[in-house]
Structures are given as C-alpha cells and as structure tokens.
Amino acid sequence: MPEVVPNEAALGARVEGLDRATANQPAVAALLNEVLAEHLLVVIPGAPMTTEQTRDFAAAFGKPQIQLLRYKRSGAVPEVSVMVSTLMDDGTTDKTAIRAEDWHTDDSYFAVPAKATLLHGIEIPSKGGATWFCNMHSVYEALPEATKKRIDGKRAIHGYDTPRARNRPSPRTPEEIAETPDVEHPLVRTHPVTGRKALYLNPNRLDRIVGLERAESDALLDELAEEARKPQHHFGHVW
Fold this sequence. Notes:
Order of helices and strands: EEHEHEEHEHHEHEEEEHE
Number of strands: 12
Structural class: alpha+beta
Radius of gyration: 18 Å
Number of helices: 7
Distance between the termini: 24 Å
Helix content: 25-40%
Oligomer: single chain
Mean pLDDT: 92
Strand content: 15-25%
Strand order of the largest sheet: 1-2-3
C-alpha cells in the first residue's frame, strides 16, 4: 500500500510507492483524494509521463478540465496543456509564464473553478525553478476576528484580466473572450470535505469586492494578500 509522508511545512504530503497506473482504482483514487483534502498538495514521485498518461492520472481526482487557451492544448490530448517557461535566445518567455510568477489560483475566472491543478515537470532547470504553494486555510485562520467578521458573506468579482494584476495575460480569441465573462465567487470558501474555511484570493484575476467602493475594496484585498504572502503559510516544491 502506498505510504503518505506529510511535509514538515504549512501544507503538502508525498505519496511514496504508488504505481501511477493504478491511480484510477477506487481504493487508490479514494486515498489520493483524502490526501489532497487533508494536505492540500500531493506530491507523487515517479518517471516521466506521456500526455495520455497525465490525462488518465488526473482522472483519479475528477473529470479533467480543458484549458481555455487553445494554443496551449497538447494536440490530440486537449485535456493536457503545455507551459513553456524556458527563456528564449532573446531573453523573452511565454507571457503566461511571467504572469504565473505572481501568486494565483487557477481558473477562478470560470463560474466553476478547477478542483485542483496537476503539474508534471518535463524539463527541470539545473538550479532554481521551485514551485511555491500557499495554505489558504491557515491564511484565513490567521486573520484577526474583526477581519473575519468584515469579510463574512462577502463576494468578489473575478475576471480574466484586471488592473490589479501585476502582468497582463495572453490575448484571447473572440471565442475565448465569449467563454470568460466576469464571475462572482465568495471571498471565503468552505471545503466540501473537511469543512475548513479558506480565503479565496487570486491576485491575477480578482478585481473587486462586491458592494464596496474601489478604494475600500483595493485596501481590503491588499490587507488580505499581505497575510497570504507571509512565509509561514508557504511550501516550495523542488522538482
């Protein structure tokens, strides 16, 4: 049976001894989803996977969601997207790679965001390149009680682009624009399995809090983001 080894950090656990080909067996899938709910980040060591294997492995957590941007989809396996962060000869890189350098959560510009993101490293840099994760449960729990009461029941507007983001996103086709109208999400979400509350922030997509003037909304979002940026809530995964 695979062994679950929790990280000595704010979140995350490794699952050792797992044959990824068995991930969709009911008992194994149940274990993986339990680890995800409890630890928020699951690391599964193993050999490189093909795009088909990556898609099939992702199905252990639910139905794979197709990436909005068509140009990132991987040919015959559109459920898998390819992100290139390598610097080109002229020193540039994919715009979305630059945008991903800021803290974010995937797909909050959809009415139904993704349950989780599966990342699979193909080419690993010789140094650096860690991917950092943040425990938004502990961020919420660290907030002053007065702040928790202030944000209780509040909703926020998420959009594909917002002036609050540090970098602009990749352009969308007319079809992709039509698929991504602004949406509302709670500022605090409750995990459907554990019942724990989590702050739902996305600096790349979160535009404003419903019912507040822009200045008040910006100040409150900045205050919440300040707590989320504290190292005690983070874990850096070294590939």
